[in-house]
Recover the amino acids of this structure.
């Protein structure tokens, strides 16, 4: 008889039980597993007083964890909730539980990959994929040959595309550990409650069940996928785009699950430009993940991955504050910024415009804008957020040196009847 093998499954942005490569591998290789989630001080207890997470995302995250805890408990398992620095907390737990290894989903952004590196120095860390549609070994080029522009990336990866099949949901998650800390509340975490706004595009609820319900509803019941390409630049209501990003960012849904749902719809209902376009947008997410893997900390530098111009404007705090509060001279920008502040959401069209305005019209530092988004966005993801901001600031992957939008024209085109502006500027 071999000695009992215990493993820790370190939960990160993968808050689901289905289609989870790290869990599947841990269950194959261990006799029992304990799940662990760390509320890291860098996010929840930042020393410089700049909060990195608002009530919107914090609530969504706690809802997601509460559901996952139920799913794990139903299968005989446990989640240990810890607070502090990730690597310190996990290394303590590994010793106390007597685990011989730790399993986790591989992440792409700098801090997360640094945690992986440090944890691997302390224990056997087994990283599984699961965040994206495909991984390093699926790429038709070496990561260090990653095309600098999206269209070239897309053409290359689409050529020999093969997306992995979905993974099974585990039946049983045996665990003998019985000292689990309770899931903290918002109050325990020092985050203020936020109230909902009846104008918000959707009443987002964290967790795998809500994510799947919305995926089914938007694609099948509301039948929105068939016209997504025409509606995706909308700004009002639940249907213009998929609104899947909060569930994708927390990993309540995997990108692979979304991909196979698109395929099913194409087989059973219709395959057209719109159905392709949702996949196309998921490729942007992939692109920024690999950009982040390749460039590490540069995504968070003012000079970006171009390392072009380290002397970009630092900006003026009052101007920045007016932008954050939606008190600029531009009503289209203001309406978007108010929507963000009141709901944690902004459409892609809005994000493009307010970012362009901050950088190119107000001459402010793009990093300050990106950090504000990090704080407020319900769907914050380091690679997509900093990748898109860098792109618009001209220090990322845009082949054009300056991507400045004409705000008047954009507002006229995308909000011709002022419906969006009236909605958010009315009180
Ligand atoms: C300045 C700026 C900051 C952004 N910050 C984030 C962020 O923190 N988190 C985030 O998930 N997205 C971010 N995006 C990308 C995009 O705006 C959102 O993914 C999208 O608006 C989410 O809405 P949706 O799920 O309805 O998208 P849909 O239009 O339905 O697209 C489906 C999915 O494709 C992916 N996607 C779509 N557009 C992009 C894009 N430009 N870049 C990367 N992935 C994309 C998302 O996962 C999205 O859920 C940012 C864009 C800009 C311009």
């Amino acid at each position: 008889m071999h000695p009992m093998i215990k493993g820790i499954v370190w939960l990160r942005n993968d808050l689901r039980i289905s289609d989870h490569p790290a869990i599947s591998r841990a269950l194959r290789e261990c006799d029992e597993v304990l799940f662990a989630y760390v509320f890291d001080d860098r996010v929840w207890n930042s020393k410089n007083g700049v909060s990195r997470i608002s009530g919107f995302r914090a609530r969504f995250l706690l809802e997601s964890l509460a559901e996952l805890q139920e799913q794990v408990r139903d299968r005989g398992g446990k989640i240990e909730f810890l607070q502090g620095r990730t690597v310190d907390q996990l290394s303590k737990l590994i010793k106390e539980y007597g685990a011989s290894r730790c399993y986790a989903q591989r992440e792409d952004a700098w801090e997360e990959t640094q945690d992986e590196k440090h944890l691997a120095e302390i224990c056997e860390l087994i990283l599984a994929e699961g965040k994206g549609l495909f991984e390093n070994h699926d790429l038709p080029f070496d990561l260090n040959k990653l095309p600098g522009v999206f269209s070239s990336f897309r053409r290359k990866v689409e050529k020999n595309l093969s997306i992995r099949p979905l993974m099974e949901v585990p039946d049983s998650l045996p665990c003998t550990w019985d000292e689990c800390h309770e899931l903290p509340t918002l109050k325990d975490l020092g985050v203020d409650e936020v109230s909902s706004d009846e104008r918000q595009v959707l009443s987002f609820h964290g967790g795998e069940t809500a994510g799947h319900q919305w995926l089914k509803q938007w694609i099948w019941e509301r039948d929105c996928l068939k016209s997504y390409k025409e509606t995706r630049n909308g700004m009002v209501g639940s249907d213009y785009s998929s609104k899947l990003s909060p569930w994708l960012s927390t990993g309540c849904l995997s990108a692979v699950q979304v991909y196979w749902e698109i395929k099913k719809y194409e087989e059973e209902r219709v395959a057209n430009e719109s159905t392709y376009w949702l996949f196309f947008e998921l490729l942007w997410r992939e692109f920024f993940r690999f950009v982040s893997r390749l460039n590490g900390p540069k995504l968070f530098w003012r000079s970006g991955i171009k390392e072009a111009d380290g002397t970009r404007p630092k900006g003026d705090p009052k101007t920045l504050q007016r932008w954050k509060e939606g008190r600029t001279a531009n009503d289209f920008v203001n309406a978007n910024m108010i929507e963000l502040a009141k709901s944690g959401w902004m459409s892609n069209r809005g994000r493009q415009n307010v970012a362009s305005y901050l950088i190119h019209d107000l001459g402010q530092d793009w990093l300050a804008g990106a950090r504000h988004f990090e704080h407020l966005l319900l769907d914050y993801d380091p690679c997509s957020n900093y990748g898109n901001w860098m792109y618009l600031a001209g220090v990322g992957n845009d082949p054009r040196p300056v991507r400045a939008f004409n705000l008047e024209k954009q507002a006229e085109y995308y909000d011709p009847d002022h419906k969006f502006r009236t909605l958010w500027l009315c009180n």
Remarks:
- Strands lie at 6-10, 32-40, 79-84, 101-105, 124-128.
- The domain at 301-425 is CATH 1.10.579.10 (DNA Cyclobutane Dipyrimidine Photolyase, subunit A; domain 3).
- DSSP finds 18 helices and five strands in the chain.
